Amino acid sequence: MKKPLQLFWSFFKIGAFTLGGGYAMLSMVEKAVVDQKKWIPTDEFWDMIAVVQSLPGVFAVNTALYVGHRVAGTKGAFAAMLGAIIPSITIILLLATVFREYRDQPVVERIFKGIRPCVVALILAPSLRMIKSAKVTWKTAIIPIATVFLIWWLKVSPAYVILAAIAGSLVYAIIINKKAKKEEAQP
Amino acid sequence: MIYLQLLWVFVKIGVLGFGGGYAMLSLIQHEVVDHYGWMTTTDFADMVAISQMTPGPISINLATYVGYTTAGFGGSLLASFALCLPSIVMVYLILKLFMSKKNNSLMDNTLKGLKPAIAGLIFAAGLSMMNTQNFVDFGRGQHNISVIICVLAFVASYFFKANPILLIVLSGVVGFIVY
After folding, report:
1. Is residue B130 located within the same domain as residue B60?
2. Shortest distance, CA A37 to any CA of chain B (angstroms)
């Protein structure tokens, strides 16, 4: 089998069987690309992932594009990307058609009345876990609080908030990098 | 027109979607529910539940769903590809610029600073969904079972890292029994 086709098939399987988002699929990608096919050495793979993680967009798609590109150029990139997203698109299209048909059934409505408050909890929980892992202190707590206030209360578009946060973080990063350089210069 | 809007919305989300599927969820919510009014807040909650329970990247699932409900089959393909488009551009541009070590530490520190804001963004998305459409029996003199479901699911998810699919299925069963 040609490489692009193999890439397509590998990512197709990963896209069709991983539940739980981008990070859950990482170990499957590693197994397929590094262990079985030996397309990329382990350390190079994790270096790539480190870069991919810092990029915006769909993590699984970014990973597929970079791995595909590294293994088989442009054709490989597109083959891997299509493999990663086609299962999702197909399954959702099927479910959306079915759901449209049955959503007004009393039974379905009852089930979803129970599910909706759970979805709210499933969105709030990871955001708080993220605050914990970002080591937010009482001083820096102003950042998430201001974000919530702007988006939830004032209905500011999250796009502007992200752009402002990127600008702020970039200034912060430049200052930190300069400080680190100064400390290196005077031992 | 709807195609152009879908294209614009999802390209924007692809460019600004730092921090994974949940961060994109708040961007999608703003555009789809607040700005364009393509969906109600209950539609959005249902869509998130379905996207959670099906395999594959949650943001691709959401894009497909939004595209399908607003503009049919063509819309679903368009929205998903629009979401991937910025990533495709990035493979060729950014990778070459940011692969060097020096830029990497700048990028890392920028992302570290971005993280608290992203967390706030996601939290806001959750808060916006706390209304009487999604919590149908909220209020004095009512059973408030929706509130109990939300609190229990939160505790299970935050403290015990319970499987989200299991939690969705369990709350569906509870909903079926009590409502």
Report:
1. yes
2. 22
